[in-house]
Amino acid sequence: xxxxxxxxxxxxxxxxxxxxxxxxxxxxxxxxxxxxxxxxxxxxxxxxxxxxxxxxxxxxxxxxxxxxxxxxxxxxxxxxxxxxxxxxxxxxxxxxxxxxxxxxxxxxxxxxxxxxxxxxxxxxxxxxxxxxxxxxxxxxxxxxxxxxxxxxxxxxxxxxxxxxxxxxxxxxxxxxxxxxxxxxxxxxxxxxxxxxxxxxxxxxxxxxxxxxxxxxxxxxxxxxxxxxxxxxxxxxxxxxxxxxxxxxxxxxxxxxxxxxxxxxxxxxxxxxxxxxxxxxxxxxxxxxxxxxxxxxxxxxxxxxxxxxxxxxxxxxxxxxxxxxxxxxxxxxxxxxxxxxxxxxxxxxxxxxxxxxxxxxxxxxxxxxxxxxxxxxxxxxxxxxxxxxxxxxxxxxxxxxxxxxxxxxxxxxxxxxxxxxxxxxxxxxxxxxxxxxxxxxxxxxx
Length: 445
Known about the structure:
The chain crosses the membrane at residues 371-394. This protein has 16 helices and 8 strands. It has helices at residues 22-28, 38-51, 71-81, 101-111, 154-167, 190-199, 238-248, 257-264, 266-277, 298-304, 318-325, 350-361, 364-402, 406-412, 415-420, 424-444, and strands at 58-64, 88-94, 117-120, 176-180, 205-210, 284-286, 293-297, 330-339.
């Protein structure tokens, strides 16, 4: 067994780190960690010392509603973690499902072996946790959809799960809790999680769930969860944060725009991308982040008495309130990576997404601001392309087609000469004659 951190010994001097080939390192880390990188190997070995100790226990908490199609992927993720941790449980809070989600979890719980347990929470006030609640993305939730909460009861339900783990005797010897989204349906990246524990086991660490930016053809893959992200304010980013706040204040408190604006704001993109690009691959501190999964030390949650909330107006992502109440920075580990499916965007889809788009369209203040900001960027981009084309690409084109010397063609584009002559071709011919005369004179001399 090599998952105890032993790299090699006298009998096996050429063993790969953890006795895993490079292909397994790649697969178990979503293509981020390498057995050839000593820093990666050390962080994973340090993480295994934490996760395989007798004092470690990991409770993975799940909120589920109409997610029966995601349970198979979740089960594979859980069973993939078993070799890496000493104690493992899945705590499920399911409510108001209509697709058989609760029955599917019960079936899984009955079939699970002794290496982990599946714990399905009950609700004393509602049998089978059937509260009769509308979905938070449902347009029928409120008479005025735009003023209804985009967060819904998520904060209450997440807090309910955390309190259950904190007070349940079955988890008294567990050290960490992992909060994750069940509906992503992608690899949890077990080596990435162990890497995060090896780097920062005593603070909250968020994953680096990524998704290709629409329209970038895969060239931009930022962390996808802008709604849960909050940067620590510094003199360098203070103005950007202020601009983002003003952008969100285009609608009054309580409006769904206050929730949508985080995902649309170019300032938020700058903050997220700036942290990620400037991290050097090391965990970096933020005020709040989620990106699909966060691992918390239970001791930190108990010490801070952390609470989930949806903000004063019910529109703030519930993870922000919880992370801020920890009173310590949350770290994002770029090497705990999860590759979110491009075909499955985070947040609402279908008619619910169209309602959010409608919120932007029907507000002139919001739609005009977005239009002008995008139009200004487009004008700047087009101007740069035109300048590049006129002063570089066009002279090269003349050289290729007409055999013209590049320097001569560049002279043709001199705007000062164009103002002195009535014909562009006359200017070009004059330049050619002057250059030719100088060359002839040089030969004569």
